[in-house]
Write a structure and sequence with these properties.
By secondary structure, this protein is mainly beta. Helix content is 4%, strand content 36%. It is globular and about 55 Å long. The chain starts with 15 loop residues before the first strand and ends with a strand.
């Protein structure tokens, strides 16, 4: 795959629109593609449940000749899958957190002395790393919506890194057939809380995390995207659903090497942005509502986080350190 991890982040001396990036010597490297991607995997999972969407992968060549996997270069086929809280694709479907026996969930040993339990709801897909080591990935790539639990053994402080992916039906175009339009840009969101062995909360998703986007689509114009150093802002871009978005563009940035590692420097990344349940649209999702007492615990209330654009930013890396 050409140039996938080779793009270097150089920063900007001033705010620049993406349309002029190619002629700006100090600009952050961004690649633009146009139109649909080629399908390279017709579906990572098979799920016949009502509401299931095909979790395909694609490859697209950008204007500069670089090649990109869309919506993301995931490790789903080789990585361990997170245990279920609620999974309609042949998995466990608990009706409340009281039904969970955490002792049935495997513990990933990172060489520490404490056991931690993480509870997760992702729209749509996540990959979780602790201290740079893969812990688990989301077993349901697209829809129906699901929720998960993972356990690991570590010492504090430890780092947590997440690849969050908003999946797409129109590969390379960041959209799906929804709400009466064939090219509807869906939204995203990631929520997690982490408890110690005594049940005390030690971490949760909030604005203290870092969040950086690496794939933004659909773009009906490239001029709307603003690059300001490490802040890649698509908030001025249209999120309108259309009947034909085949001529739209996408923006791609290379994932930095070792972004999962504890020592990775994410200080230049923007802070994560929090979103309400209503904005993410989970109050009608059984995988979430069955666990209100967990996900909306007033004493340890995890927030949905993402980059600044919940709709158009489709591949987002999230990081924090738990002291």
């Amino acid at each position: 795959m050409k140039n996938y991890l080779a793009i270097t982040a150089l920063g900007l001396a001033s705010v620049t629109t993406a349309a002029t990036i190619a002629t700006t010597a100090q600009a952050q490297s961004v690649s633009f593609s146009t139109g649909p991607a080629e399908v390279i995997n017709p579906g990572l999972i098979s799920c016949s449940t009502r509401g299931s969407r095909v979790s395909a992968l694609g490859r697209i060549t950008a204007d500069d000749g670089s090649e990109w996997v869309v919506p993301a270069p995931v490790n789903f086929e080789t990585a361990p899958k997170a245990a279920d809280l609620f999974n309609q694709c042949g998995g466990t479907q608990l009706t409340s957190i009281s039904e969970l026996d955490v002792n049935t969930v495997d513990v990933v040993d990172l060489g520490g002395s404490e056991i931690f339990t993480a509870y997760i709801f992702a729209d749509n897909y996540f990959e979780l790393y602790v201290n740079g080591k893969m812990i688990a990935v989301d077993p349901v790539v697209f829809t129906p919506f699901n929720s998960n639990v993972v356990r690991f053994k570590a010492d504090r402080p430890f780092s947590m890194a997440v690849m969050g992916v908003d999946w797409e039906e129109n590969l390379g175009l960041g959209s799906e057939n929804n709400r009466g339009k064939a090219y509807h840009p869906g939204d995203a969101g990631f929520l997690m809380l982490v408890d110690d062995a005594a049940g005390n909360n030690v971490a949760l998703t909030d604005a203290g995390w870092k969040a950086q986007t690496f794939y933004t689509a659909p773009l009906n114009t490239r001029d709307c995207l603003v690059i300001d150093g490490a802040n890649w802002d698509s908030s001025a871009c249209s999120t309108e659903s259309v009947s034909d978005g085949t001529g739209y563009s996408a923006a791609h940035w290379a994932l930095p090497e070792a972004w999962q590692a504890s020592e990775f420097d994410d200080s230049a990344w923007p802070d994560a942005v929090t979103f309400s349940n209503d904005t993410v649209g989970v109050d009608n999702k059984t995988a979430y509502t069955n666990f209100y007492e967990l996900f909306d615990n007033k004493e340890a209330d995890a927030q949905f986080i993402w980059s600044s654009n919940l709709v158009l930013d489709n591949l987002v890396l999230l990081r924090t350190t738990v002291e």
